[in-house]
């Protein structure tokens, strides 16, 4: 980590102060000042670029991609199956996290006119932030302070004192455990099970509920379960951990095995492992931020009940914890701050924007907008269409065996798509067409005139639109 220049003075006044330099904080600072003479500081306590760059999205996807390529090579006639190189996979990860060196991000920030200050920041008054209690730097914001402190893993009580792995250890894996227990059935659990099994661990997934990826369409979790079984992952449902003990727990370092054998008692039986990974969700990081010094609590942040000069973005705000979503909201917040500070026009903000997500499992799960079940809960007049992912010539060309399904959720009253799910090889690349259709509120009779090329997977759109009731082929009377 380079030591970026600390300001010479102990008092600093700028227009905007951002606490936390993850991808979201960086975007907020950039949009708050771009094209103006406004000044911004980001205070970062660890690495500029945050979780996504070093411990979450980038390293996980760097590890998953070789598995995807190898899996495809083993399932396309005319190609010899590729051999995985475990050491090479870890080197690829190290390269994508720049060996945990954030110099290039600091360079980017400085080139965008944003000053980077190192240290832990706390609010000490209205529009005033102190960096590290002992140090003397106090920063005053003329206009706004933005909280972009991210989130931290939830550690259930049963795991206290065990030195269990968190997702950072899984993405930063150095020593691959021979037997790995993963607790959780959500996104981190499913993605981490995929790359750690790919690296040679014997993975047991302990899921407290009856399914995987329960926030998605049910066929998503089922397809991912099949994929896991193919790769030798043992998935145990209805397995709530009641106690966890470990011999000689020790903080040995990121991605190293943190002590002796782990004994887990669960409602589905007892398990022994060499390491246990907690994938039990994350919580906004709002402690030790000085909220009380300005008469606020974490609930004020989560309820967006903040003074005009204080904003929260990204995981810290309690909004959907995804990088692209946090960055989108940060662009909006930044642009609004810029408009208020310069007297410029208010930015256009769409009334509604759907949240997309791609889960990089085998097969991939790509979803935008509500599932059928959520749409029904929202009172939408739901019409759905669903087809197998292999129902186009383009998808059949991808692999010998193409798993998965595609589904759209249409609002019968507006006849616009409100949600879509694609589960299958390279499904992530199918998603943005759906996001555009939903955001643009294109009625399905018009969408039928968006012609997908032959032979591509996008022809799933033809199949899906053909599945809808015939009267939807015309404008509504
Ligand atoms: C394993 C894993 C994989 C993921 N994969 C994806 C994915 O593929 N796609 C996706 O969209 N999302 C993914 N996510 C979610 C994504 O990582 C987060 O939504 C995103 O990182 C949030 O960005 P942020 O800037 O809000 O917070 P963070 O990235 O957490 O950044 C917050 C920053 O604030 C700093 N900080 C905190 N408190 C202070 C303080 N008081 N003073 C100074 N600095 C402070 C921290 O050091 C940190 O750098 C993944 C998450 C995990 C755990
Ligand atoms: N590709 C991506 O977009 C991506 C990848 C990884 C993470 N993320 C995001 O990061 C966030 C965190 O992911 P996550 O998987 O940790 O959270 P999650 O909320 O998706 O899943 C948490 C899982 O842990 C289980 N759980 C919670 N408490 C438990 C307990 N005490 N005992 C046993 N099981 C328990 C839940 O039932 C659920 O299955 C999510 O919002 C996710 O969307 C996104």
UniProtKB/TrEMBL annotation:
Transmembrane segments: none
Protein name in the entry: NAD(P)/FAD-dependent oxidoreductase
Organism (species): Kocuria carniphila
Database matches in InterPro entries: Class-I_Pyr_Nuc-Dis_Oxidored, FAD/NAD-bd_sf, FAD/NAD-binding_dom, FAD/NAD-linked_Rdtase_dimer_sf, Pyr_nuc-diS_OxRdtase, Pyr_nucl-diS_OxRdtase_dimer
NAD recorded as keyword: yes
EC number: 1.-.-.-
MF-aspect GO terms: oxidoreductase activity
Protein family per UniProt: Belongs to the class-I pyridine nucleotide-disulfide oxidoreductase family.
Domain (FAD/NAD(P)-binding): residue spans on this chain: 15-297
Group of enzyme by EC: oxidoreductase
This protein's UniProt keywords: FAD, Flavoprotein, NAD, Oxidoreductase
UniProt keyword NAD present: yes
Superkingdom: Bacteria
Entry cofactors: FAD
């Amino acid at each position: 980590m380079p030591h970026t220049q600390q300001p010479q003075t102990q008092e600093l006044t700028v227009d905007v102060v951002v606490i936390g330099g993850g991808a979201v904080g960086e975007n907020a600072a950039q949009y708050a000042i771009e094209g103006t003479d406004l000044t911004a500081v980001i205070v970062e306590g660890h690495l500029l670029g945050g979780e996504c760059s070093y411990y979450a999205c980038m390293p996980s996807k760097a590890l998953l991609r070789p598995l995807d390529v190898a899996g495809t090579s083993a399932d396309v006639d005319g190609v010899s199956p590729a051999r995985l190189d475990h050491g090479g996979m870890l080197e690829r990860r190290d390269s994508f996290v720049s060996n945990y060196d954030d110099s290039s991000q600091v360079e980017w920030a400085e080139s965008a006119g944003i000053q980077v200050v190192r240290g832990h920041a706390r609010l000490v008054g209205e529009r005033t932030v102190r960096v590290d209690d002992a140090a003397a730097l106090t920063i005053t914001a003329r206009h706004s302070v933005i909280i972009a402190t991210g989130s931290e893993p939830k550690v259930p009580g049963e795991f206290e004192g065990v030195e269990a792995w968190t997702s950072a250890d899984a993405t930063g894996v150095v020593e691959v455990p021979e037997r790995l227990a993963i607790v959780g059935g959500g996104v981190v659990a499913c993605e981490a099970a995929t790359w750690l099994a790919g690296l040679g661990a014997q993975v047991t997934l302990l899921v407290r509920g009856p399914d995987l990826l329960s926030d998605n369409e049910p066929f998503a979790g089922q397809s991912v379960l099949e994929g896991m079984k193919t790769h030798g992952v043992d998935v145990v449902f209805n397995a709530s951990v009641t106690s966890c003990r470990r011999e000689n727990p020790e903080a040995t370092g990121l991605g190293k095995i943190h002590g002796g054998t782990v004994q887990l008692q669960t409602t589905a039986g007892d398990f022994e492992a060499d390491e246990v990974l907690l994938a039990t969700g994350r919580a906004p990081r709002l402690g030790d931020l000085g909220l009380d010094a300005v008469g606020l609590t974490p609930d004020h942040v989560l309820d967006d009940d903040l003074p005009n000069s204080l904003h929260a973005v990204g995981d810290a705000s309690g909004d959907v914890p995804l990088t692209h979503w946090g960055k989108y909201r940060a662009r909006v917040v930044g642009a609004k701050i810029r408009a208020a500070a310069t007297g410029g026009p208010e930015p256009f903000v769409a009334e509604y924007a759907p949240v997309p997500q791609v889960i990089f499992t085998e097969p991939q799960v790509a979803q935008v907008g509500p599932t059928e079940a959520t749409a029904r809960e929202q009172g939408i007049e739901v019409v759905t269409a669903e087809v197998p992912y292999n129902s186009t010539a383009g998808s059949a060309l991808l692999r010998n065996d193409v798993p998965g399904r595609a589904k759209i959720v249409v609002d019968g009253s507006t006849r616009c798509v409100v949600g879509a799910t694609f589960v299958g090889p390279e499904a992530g690349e199918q998603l943005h067409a759906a996001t555009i259709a939903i955001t643009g509120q294109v009625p399905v009779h018009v969408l039928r005139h968006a012609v997908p090329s032959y032979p591509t997977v996008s022809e799933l759109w033809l199949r899906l639109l053909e599945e809808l009731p015939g009267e939807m082929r015309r404008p509504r009377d």
